[in-house]
Amino acid sequence: MGLPTSTPPQVLTAPNNGQLLGAGGTTNSYLTFADTHASRQNAVLFSDNDGFLYAMGYNNTGSPTFLWGWMPQGLLPQLQNYNTFWQGTNMQGGFHTTDATNGANPAQWHTYVAGSASNGSILYDLQLTGTTAANLQNTIWEDDLGGNYSQPQPSDPVFYQYQTPGTKNFGQTWALWAVNKTISATSSTSYLIGVNVGTGQSFQDALPFNNTATPYIDASGNPYLGDNTGNVYEATATVLQSLLTPSTGTKIPSLPAKDFITTGPYASSTMWSGSFSGTYPFMVQYIGGSYYQGKNYLRVQGPNGITIFSQLNGTWSPVWTAYAGSVGGAGIWSSSTFTTQTSGANPPITALPAGSVVSAPALINSGAVILPVTVPPSANSCGNGDAYYYLYALNNGIFPSGTFTDSTGTAITSALFVGYGTAFTPTVTSFNGRTLLQGAASNTGPSKTFPTGFGAGLPLGGPTGWKLVN
């Protein structure tokens, strides 16, 4: 095998999409699919820079089974240089599974794997089949874009799915990616690319701005992107749906600027104090959302900080922010007026450490924002940095006291140290009836384990990212 990718493994269980199972109606064909595949063996999918996406089946007896390995056709010519090939970034990207129909009438359900490789220059869509194991059936679609294409950040696709039983498009699902095409050292064009995972029908549309963010789709089906100056661009679900019937011409269409509403910037030199490294210190990298206590929230992140927005009458307004840079700081908005937090603020919003980096998408759970932050080693040190989770209340930014405890039941009262190297997005699962927050970083250090946090019983804060829509 080659060098591992930074893409987290994906656990594939038997079909259990709660939104599809709860869609109701006598015409819900997903119920039959879930029933006939209820005994399908669980599997772990993972990628490796030897050029393969692998699937391993497992069960509670501890006897793993190799199911399959798949390599994109676009990588095959490079195998002649395998002595260096396996050390490259061949499968660097992201992937995710989804249950969807293949466009047939009546609907035929399958599980699909959509993802990217070679930093986003290769996009793919695979069909799995089998009631006892998730076997690889077909490569539905592969788009070898070329070496001058890349994703802003290695990331999974986002999915848009029709979920109204009885309609002809029930279960049809589109996987979406944002990629950039480098034209010269100073010029690039951004595109939104999508594929119907069941049929292979695809589209590619040029964006009217240079996108730097991974795509996000909210509960209403509205897509979001961002640029290198801190602006967030939102289109309506109607605009997105218009792309799902691609034109048959050979020219790549361009989306007009009027199709997007601009929010932000989420950060600027007039809001954040101190100096910041990098050519575009206020670029948007990650966008996500949550519904909590009757209100929609939007999180916008870049390498140097995070800003939370709330929605009123369809308009997004900033609420609070925390940032790093040369000094680190925080601030709040009141009636559209920004105020930098002073040292005497009570209760305070925790500033990020000077020189630290927001290294992965935040997770929102139990009304708390869990932000992965990597603190580099001191200037006179050659060791690894430290990985932390900085914790904030979603609605006001203060520390979410009482939200999480450690394994002994002691309340977590400050940033949570999770290991060494880069801090990654945590995972949240249910463990013995409690919410379990599992940390992740490049290295555990001497403990050989990543710390965990437990929810203290507060209600969950809503979805952590995109939501499937009708």
TrEMBL record:
One of its GO terms (molecular function) is carbohydrate binding. This is Putative Concanavalin A-like lectin/glucanase. It comes from mine drainage metagenome. Keywords: Lectin.
